[in-house]
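Hi P.,

Sorry for the delay on this. The queue was packed all week, but I finally got your sequence through. Input first:
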Amino acid sequence: MAARFLSAEWAEEVTAAVHDHPGFGPAVEGIEFSVQFEIDQVPDGGAARYYLDVAHDDASLEIGTLGQADLTVRTDYATAASISQGTLKIQSAFFSGKLSISGNVAKLLLNQRALDHLADAVSGLDVEY
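Then the structure:
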């Protein structure tokens, strides 16, 4: 059964997929960073918040707000769903103004390889949008 995008079940499946992905572990070895995602215009009329936390050679995706994230990514639901489905790259969304990034952008650039593996890991998940 498909997990609903931005639900707790979806976050658990993303975390499991990341742990199972052969390239992600080596990509995050010895690094620490966190990204807060803020998604507006969610179909129920609200907003969604989740974060990626990478530390101690491990990573997890959790629903909610992280107190001190290195980066904050803001976008709307349609853009977030397109990125999740692999039909839109984060870089394209950023340069077209559909996504904004604030915080320590240097950490984003330094950890792009890990984020690429994250996108790869979740590309095969069964998700309901």
